[in-house]
Write a structure and sequence with these properties.
With 232 residues, the protein is of the alpha+beta class. Helices cover 27% and strands 20% of the residues. It catalyses: a hydroperoxide + [thioredoxin]-dithiol = an alcohol + [thioredoxin]-disulfide + H2O.
Length: 232
Amino acid sequence: MCDDTNCLCDAFDDDCGCGDFYHEMPRLGEPAPEFIAETTHGEIKLSDYRDKKWVVLFSHPADFTPVCTTEFVAFSKAYPEFEKRNVALIGLSVDSSSSHLAWIRDIEEKLGVHVPFPVIADLDTGVASLYGMIQPAMSSTAACRAVFFIDPKGILRAMIYYPLTTGRCIAEILRVIDALQVNDTHHVATPANWKPGDKVIVPAPKTQKEMEEREKVTGPDKKTWYLLMKDL
């Protein structure tokens, strides 16, 4: 973090000139930052998945750590569910490929779980910096538990950040993917606690005429003129 009180740098500068390096945080609805990275499956580019798959990019603080190990087991066991949704999982931490490979092998040998997705080796924090995964108040050397949801057009659609001490809920990550895909396919919104099979929300009226038409709607799915539910 820049401690030069005369410096005018901010999150939008790549180099403030004071010796510290800054990256703009990724923003929802904009293209996810492109990267080329070494992984346990060889070199990959984010654009390799363009027009083909959704991507869930997630970071973890370090290899051979207890919470991260439970997460890798959970992600691996849920991998078929991600495949059903046409989602590519990509892991990342600020560790080397050799460390990743040794840890993955240990998980398979000790816990009986095969890790099927690539894990980025990000020793120079290049990808972690692009995505704001390094949170200095938590750690200046380890990535937090961030999750980025990127659609097939390469647009960042959602992101979740967790502290180092809190393991992620894989069911919630799958739920977010389900909701985003329903949003896109049916042009609807999803209410709080929504899960597949629940009612969805019809977009609210945008004009006075649409509002007047909505007021004519009757039935238990109409809560008020701006909140109308329906089954898919």
